[in-house]
Protein 1
Amino acid sequence: MRLGSIHIYPIKSTRGLQVATAQVEPWGLAGDRRYMVVDADGMVLTARDHPRMLAVAATAEGRGLTLTGPHADPLQVSPAPGTPTRRVRIWNDDVDAVDAGDEAAAWFTALLGVPARLVWLDDPTRRPVDPDYGTADDRVSFADAYPLLLASTASLRRLNDWIAEGAVERGEEPPEPLPMTRFRPSVVVEDVPEPFAEDRWRRVRIGDVPFRAVKLCDRCVLTTIDPGTLTKGKEPIRTLSRHRRWDGKVWFAVNLIPDGTGTIRVGDPVTAEE
């Protein structure tokens, strides 16, 4: 098995960047989801409810970001040193983060049509991982719950086969295969011996960096949004509900917690223990 691709999402719920190498930090890949967008009350906003977020690209620019979107000129964002933190909420977690300023707030408000502000997690040690699946020392940035998400091309091929078979059963033309970007993985593994083998993995090594595989990923409506057209459909939730549903949820990919730090590169060997 080998590492086929690496993906970083500088701002939660915006477009991902595919990179050739990445530094693994205790809370995830360097530069991954250290920013997020919140509403007037400090609650996280995501593309689940605001698909236009998927049209935003953010790239590193010095110690900040350059934002590009379909609604306004590009904007450079760089939180000022010493800016006081404010309390924000991501799901069940209250976290102190730095507000990125009024220009960024106006930019995202114009994009989404609701009051919005961009915040930066200046200290990624503040947010612990769910203690049911991690240790007291495990931390996560503004990712949903865990530092990294691993998916395999073998599982995606099987899922696309199921989708095509279901379309034929309904008398429909099989759709174009879903791309891996629908699932927003951090790392994608190729040459896995069988589909969904990652369900059974407990420890994974990518290159020289070890990880724990702590929990399968339950999937939400975000996977049904085409990141190119921003339109919603029924797949892959419809097909996952048929083939990968238990405990009242549907499942695809596995969450990882680093057990070390270092650099990972596309092409690195991947090994796993069940």
Protein 2
Amino acid sequence: MKKLVLTGAAGRLGSYLREPLSEMADELISTDIVEDIGMTYPSERYIAADLANYEEIAAVLEGADMVVHFGAIGDERTFEELLGPNFIGAYNIWEAAYRHGVKRVVYASSIHAVGMHKKSDFIGIDAPHRPDTFYGLAKCFAEDLASMYWDKRQIEAVCLRILSCAQVTNARALGSWLSYDDLVQLVTRAIDTPSVGFSVVYGVSNNDRVPVDNSKASFLGYRPKDNAEFMAEKILADAPPVDVTDPGQMCHGGPFASVELGQSGLATMNIIDDKKTT
């Protein structure tokens, strides 16, 4: 590829994608709303742009072959707070991709698009949308947008329904963990698979307790290698008893399934900020 665009480059997951993506194209344009992301990798260039501003996003995507769209507010907020970056931002990405002839959008969707499904149901990639929050609703919107732009305008898309890409700190993560190495592999396969049309794949590692079925996405060639089971003995020894009446423990969305709409889902998740530094 000549030009690849990464949104959300200043975020934790974006920090692990920048280096491998910079090696996949002649030029990587990393973008976010911060003024600066520090040192850049060879072939990487940073441009600050607001997802909610179409003109800024269109300028960044001009001449791009593909865009890896990880930018957004990454937690539950009020609908009004999410409207610009998460809803309008998604529209701006796909519309700019269409107008500039971008071949494919690789999108950081989320398990929260189907977060109210029970974990015991072992859902596949064709499970109907069942969002757990306004945040999850935004993911549903973007997935449907991606499907429509493929059907009507032939913009390919791979929607990565990421479960939990962070250090394993709780019992839920024994099944939902996506390691950073597997994240890189997942995004790489979403980019280098010759034809994807509109596709959905769960972003999860090869965990013994994985609660979702990726078999219908096997054509992407994603074969995760890491397994959270090495943490099981320690995590389960410290875990509180299971409350079968709590949607946060019984549903795929975890804490997002039990919080009030508009209230943070991350607040109780003890996410360790191990952002990669160049």
